[in-house]
Amino acid sequence: MLKKKITLGGLIEGAIMAALAMALSYIPHSIGGLGIQLQWGLLPLILVAERRGWQVGTIAGLIWGLLDAMLRGGSNLLNPLQIIMEYPVAFGVLGLAGLVALPLRDALKDRKLGMAVGYIFIGGLIGTIAKYFFHFIAGVFYWGTYAPKGWNVWLFSLYVNGISAVLGLIYVAVVLGVLASIAPQLFVVSNRNRHIEEAH
Fold first, then answer.
1. Count of domains for the chain
2. Residue 144 lies in a domain
3. What CA–CA distance (Å, rounded) separates 63 from 187?
4. CA geometry: angle at 118 spanning 88 and 49, to 5°?
5. What are the pLDDT digits (tens) for 152-162?
6. Is 77 helix (H, G, I), strand (E, B) or coil?
7. What residue numbers bound the domain in which 143 lies?
8. Count of C-beta atoms within a 10 Å radius of residue 154
9. Whose CB among 21, 98, 115, 182 lies 3.0–4.6 Å from 57's, allowing a Cys bridge?
10. How far is CA 35 from CA 29, 58, 67, 106, 137, in A?
């Protein structure tokens, strides 16, 4: 089975997308007062993962998570285990969206747009579920005191993180689906660039 290699160009692109995701994090993204969020930075992270593969996507997610913890963590940093779980780990597994990178590239190469959009959705689903699973666990064990009176902490964490995941998936799937139809080259590393990178 073919694997996407980690190249210098891929790492640079991943770092740029992580920085873009961090910049987008400063746009208000909280919905209501219960902790539900639509994280705008999901888009560049899933795009680079689906373009470059899960390895680069995971590295980019780790970078974003560390930046977010350092620059915006503040009172959300409760203890070392929670910090690791909700920042480098939760953001890093977002890169698993890149598991569909090769079949997505092949579908676009064969001009099978419907199949390509399906892969984009599947990749987004994998990444967002993986990310919000860790937020869900952290919500149960570290944020349970914020649950409204009468709420079971498991159901409250599932409610907050489940809605956040669904909103993020819809946002990513719609935007990337449109991009795949009008600019499919965004999801494919050109042969010229690939040859240059592999020569170094």
1. 1
2. yes
3. 21
4. 30
5. 999 999 999 99
6. coil
7. 8-195
8. 13
9. 98
10. 10, 25, 20, 39, 15
What is the structure's pLDDT at 34? 74
- The string of pLDDT tens digits covering residues 24-66 is 999 988 887 677 899 999 999 999 999 999 999 999 999 999 9
Q: Which residue has the tokens 């159901």?
A: 155
Residue at 2 is within a domain: no
Closest CA to 43 of 182, 193, 180, 185: 180
How far apart CA 129 and CA 124 sit, in angstroms, is 8
Low-confidence ranges of the chain (pLDDT < 50): 1-2, 193-200
Alpha-carbon span 13 to 19, nearest angstrom: 10
CATH number of the structural domain spanning residue 125: 1.10.1760.20
What CA–CA distance (Å, rounded) separates 190 from 52? Answer: 11
* Closest to 20 measured CA to CA, from 1, 36, 3, 44: 44
- Helix (H, G, I), strand (E, B), or coil: what is residue 11? helix
At residue 172, the pLDDT reads: 96
Q: Are strands 30-31 and 36-37 parallel, antiparallel or unpaired?
A: antiparallel
Distance CA(64)–CA(41), nearest Å, equals: 9
105 within some domain? yes
Hey, what amino acid is at 65? Answer: G
Whether the CB-CB separation of 96 and 49 falls below 8 Å is answered with: yes
